[in-house]
User: What shape does this take?
Amino acid sequence: MTSESLKPYVKQLRVEGWCVLEDVIPADVVDIVREEVETSESDYGEFSKENGRWARNVISFMPKFAEHLANERLLDVIRQRLGPQVRISQTEYKIRPPHYKLVRAYHSDFPYDLNQKWHITQPFPRAVIGITTLWMLTDFTTENGGTWIVPKSHVDLRNPRGKEDGIGDRNPISGEMQAVGSAGSVLIMDSRIWHSNAENPADTRRTAVVVRYAPWWLNLELFGVNTATIPGEIFDAFPDDVKLLYEHRAEDREPSYWL
Ligand SMILES: O=C(O)CCC(=O)C(=O)O
Assistant: This one.
């Protein structure tokens, strides 16, 4: 049963295709988590250069961040759209440096990104089969690269990357807006929603991590960095509810989810 306080978020996610849930990472730890994410990006880069891009799952490099991924309020909202059993399909750094220039590249996310090999074809089914979360580790504002979103586009059968749809992923789109929120909040989107990076004209970084959640039945063996594994001893240190979300990536560990 969803608590009364979460119902407006679930409704906004269903009707508008997005919402921002505040205080998912508590204010007293968000700086520590941000520092871990910012400093680990280069460690991850170096490790991957030496050992191969698919050698180690990115979440292995940010265990303090990982602790929050099964946040009860967040999972409650996500489960209202995906069903009770969910897994994490993809995790990626989304750190926009100061004066970052790319203005727009509209798309929907896995499994609806028409530029990826592993996408489903248009017209997309009405079922929700992906939730994208962007974890704000600095404030998101209109001045530092808050994500562009097009409300209600999750139910539009066209797509900015649809070859026949005449929209164009680099163009401004009518109704677009930037998602804003304070550090520790999470932007939750139906993965069909049209969204894009924004430029960051500020002198400071905009730091975030994208984490995509999928229903248990979706094939996640899509090759690429997101199928990289988590060393068993790092996985063992995750909280139990986070283990359930990443169990399919754990090295040398028996799956326990269905037992
Ligand atoms: O970093 C952002 O603001 C947007 C990221 C994005 O478009 C994505 O992860 O699919």
Summary: The radius of gyration is 18 Å.
